[in-house]
Amino acid sequence: MNPLKPLDPLDRAQARTWLAVAVAEARAGLAEGGIPIGAALYGADGTLLGRGHNRRVQDGDPSTHGETAAFRNAGRQRSYRGTTMVTTLSPCWYCSGLVRQFGISRVVVGEAVTFHGGHDWLAEHGVEIVLLDDPECVDMMRDFITNNPALWNEDIGE
Fold first, then answer.
1. Which of 4, 65, 73, 109 is 20 to 30 A from 116, alpha carbon to alpha carbon?
2. Of 67, 124, 128, 136, which is the active-site residue?
3. 21 or 13: whose pLDDT is higher?
């Protein structure tokens, strides 16, 4: 089984469109002095349910990751089957657990170069993973990590 399932070209274009929302969130977080990780949750019909960015620094809350912020902003859903979480960075174990716990069907990952989170584990458990290797996401995180190594290490628990 190939854990990184490619999408057909039309779906890949849609994934990139959705990623732009997550990137805008990441940039907003960076502008606020936070960690530039953004996310968006889309319904099975492609409707944007919620969006958000990492607010650990801004709120002093270690649980406010980009994915959790998007999830919370989506509000209660009857079911998360068929939904897609879009994130600028491979989800950490905490956010990967959120995806599994609530049955989110697909995760679009902007990049996994600067941080290889739990997306392989998610794929092994039936979550469709779309890894875009987006250069803008890679550059944004590399710049942040270079300029803020202590804050980055705190964010990833090192």
1. 73
2. 67
3. 21
Gap between the terminal Cα atoms of the chain: 32
Residue 111 is among the residues annotated as catalytic for this protein: no
Q: Which helix (H) or strand (E) holds 10?
A: helix 9-31
Unique residue bearing structure tokens 């919370």: 72
Helix, strand, or coil (residue 107): strand
Of the candidates 101, 112, 99, the one whose C-alpha atom is nearest the C-alpha of residue 70 is 99
Q: Distance from CA of residue 21 to its chain's centroid?
A: 11
**Four-residue CA torsion sign, 133, 136, 140, 145:** positive
In the chain, the amino acid numbered 38 is G
Indicate if the pLDDT at residue 5 is higher than 70.
Answer: no
Cα angle for residues 115, 117, 118 (degrees, 5° grid): 165
**What is the pTM assigned to this prediction?**
0.92
